[in-house]
Amino acid sequence: MNKNILLIIIFVMSAIAGCSSSEDFTGSGEEFLYTEGLRSITVSNWGRSILIFQQLEAQFPFGQFAEQSQLELIYAYYRNSEPEAARAAADRFIRLYPDSESLDYAYYMKGMAYYSEDARILGRYLPTDPSKRDPGKAKESFADFSQLLNLFPNSEYSPDARARMVYLKNLLADYEVHVAEFYIERQAYLSSLNRARYVVENFQGAPAVPRALEIVAEMYLRMGLNDLADSTIEILALNFPDSQQLTEEGDFIVSTQITDPSFLYSMSFGLLGSNKKDAPLAPTQRPVRIANQEEFTIPETERPRSILNVISLGVLGDAGTTDENTDSESEQ
Predict the structure, then answer these.
(1) Mind listing the pLDDT tens digit for each residue in 80-94?
(2) E strands present in the chain
(3) Whole-prediction pTM
(4) Is there a contact between 232 and 240 (Cβ–Cβ < 8 Å)?
(5) Which residue in 266, 263, 236, 270 sits closest to 251, CA to CA?
(6) CA distance 153 to 144
(7) DSSP conformation class of 302
């Protein structure tokens, strides 16, 4: 019984869609087309409204409703999840009506087309993180809103556009940090440094800035640029004293683990095994400054690994690094 009802519903919906798509408005008056288009928008029949306003544009390109129908068409494309068509319609309106009082609305909808796309298609159904996806459309949307604010700072749409730009700025900053962390795991320290510095220099006020500063400091340490690392750590401690990579004394904690899923972890979809690998990607001890001297020195408790230890992958030979307790025991 339920299957029969479902088939009937599908048939009825198909018939309605077929009737809508086969409607022919050729020869209809301009006012009739405009009224029908608005009626379709009122009932959220976006496909039919697009069809009607396209017909109105084709038959009456210079009519009394031509300008307003172009605006309605932009909105219908937007609500019908056709961002490319909405942006194209907005660009066409801006080109055809440069002196229109509704020009700010066209710029606003152009930015909204890409702003809402992810939320419509993916975010509504899947628990995805938009900061981990391609930021190209977010950048486009940010640029469109920025253009609106530059051209129409007093527009009624400017406050909303400004608020959306804050979200987009934070989104782009998070994306850059994700990329920087990706480079860390692949030991591409310079690339990671450049990404993190870009966040610090261009996204001030974003929540991702503290993490970006942590990455900058760590990359400087791993590259042996200790003066730059010290100055970065001072900035981090001054502005973000609650950073998880700072001890209570203000010392910087260097990460020594990278993501490296084991075979068991991958095959069990994260239920067994581990996805972390201990890897001394950075010095376990910071170089210390000798009193009254400018140069740095390596602590005496560290010495290089022997050739045998390197060749045997750490199984044989001298590992190089010893602690003070071992030295004191050997002396006794």
Answers:
(1) 989 999 999 999 999
(2) 257-259, 276-278, 288-289, 296-297
(3) 0.68
(4) no
(5) 236
(6) 13
(7) B
Q: What is the pLDDT of residue 63?
A: 85
R_g of the chain, CA atoms, integer Å: 31
Q: Which residue is it, tokens 């029969």?
A: 4
Spell out a b/e string for 300-314, using b for 16 or more CB atoms within 10 Å of the CB, else e: eeeeeeeeebeeeee
Per the CB < 8 A criterion, the answer to whether 33 and 55 are in contact is yes
Closest by CA to 30, choosing from 73, 77, 62, is 62
Over 80: is that where the pLDDT of 284 sits?
no
Give CA–CA dist 114/109, Å, rounded: 9
Query: Rounded to whole angstroms, how far apart are CA atoms 72 and 328?
Result: 83
Give dist(CA 48, CA 276) in Å, integer.
54
Q: Which is nearest to 25 in space by CA: 68, 47, 54, 66?
A: 54
The Cα 214–Cα 200 span in angstroms is 10
The 10s digit of each residue's pLDDT in 7-49 is: 455 444 544 444 444 465 665 688 888 899 899 999 999 999 9
The confidence score (pLDDT) of residue 255 equals 76
Contacts 24+ apart (CB under 8 A), 27-35: 28/55, 28/59, 30/56, 30/59, 30/60, 30/63, 30/64, 30/65, 31/65, 33/59, 33/60, 33/65, 33/69, 34/65, 34/68, 34/69
